[in-house]
Amino acid sequence: MTLADRLRTALDAEHETAPVLLAGDERDPGPEANGVPTPAAVLVAVTDRAEPGLILTQRTDTLRRHAGQIAFPGGRIDPQDDGAIAAALREAEEEIGLARDAVQLVGTADRYRTVTGFEVQPVLGVIPPDLALRPQPEEVAAIFEAPLAYLLDPANHVEASVEWQGRERHYYEIMWQDFRIWGATAAMLVNLSRRLRLSDWGSA
């Protein structure tokens, strides 16, 4: 069975107990129209290795939102996009130079609503290893690959809290090497871990 097939089977599997998923950040009104969140999509690109990895980016320090943070390639769904999958593929091509035809689509994972008013649709796909990816310098400071099994291991999901805008905000963070993955990106990884249940089909 190919990696894409294994991921697709795990994504679509029905379990005796439904996974407890994170729906979104506790938030005040954000940049959305009439209380409706702005639709967005990200590409969760898994490398097709014996030990699969996951492609992540570090955003530049000059961006207005989430400067310097770790993120999946992605962004808002534009009117010309044919849905979330098309948006995720377009954004990945623009941000990291990942050709759309290099992505073997697996499916869509659980949506997540961010503190900044976006409802993000993760799109899961498999890509060949060691592609020559190129960061878009205005948005992406670095591209790196982290082990999928490590990122999805619940033992590495640390719950933390911070005082933010007068209230206590709870979030998850995942430390890998010198990278601190937290906020919406970590939450989507937690959800993906709970949905896929990698331990049910062997080490990735």
Automatic annotation (TrEMBL):
<keyword id="KW-0460">Magnesium</keyword>
<dbReference type="InterPro" id="IPR000086">
    <property type="entry name" value="NUDIX_hydrolase_dom"/>
</dbReference>
<protein>
    <submittedName>
        <fullName>CoA pyrophosphatase</fullName>
    </submittedName>
</protein>
<keyword id="KW-0464">Manganese</keyword>
<dbReference type="InterPro" id="IPR045121">
    <property type="entry name" value="CoAse"/>
</dbReference>
<dbReference type="Pfam" id="PF00293">
    <property type="entry name" value="NUDIX"/>
</dbReference>
<feature type="domain" description="Nudix hydrolase">
    <location>
        <begin position="37"/>
        <end position="167"/>
    </location>
</feature>
<keyword id="KW-0479">Metal-binding</keyword>
<dbReference type="InterPro" id="IPR015797">
    <property type="entry name" value="NUDIX_hydrolase-like_dom_sf"/>
</dbReference>
<dbReference type="GO" id="GO:0046872">
    <property type="term" value="F:metal ion binding"/>
</dbReference>
<dbReference type="GO" id="GO:0010945">
    <property type="term" value="F:coenzyme A diphosphatase activity"/>
</dbReference>
<keyword id="KW-0378">Hydrolase</keyword>
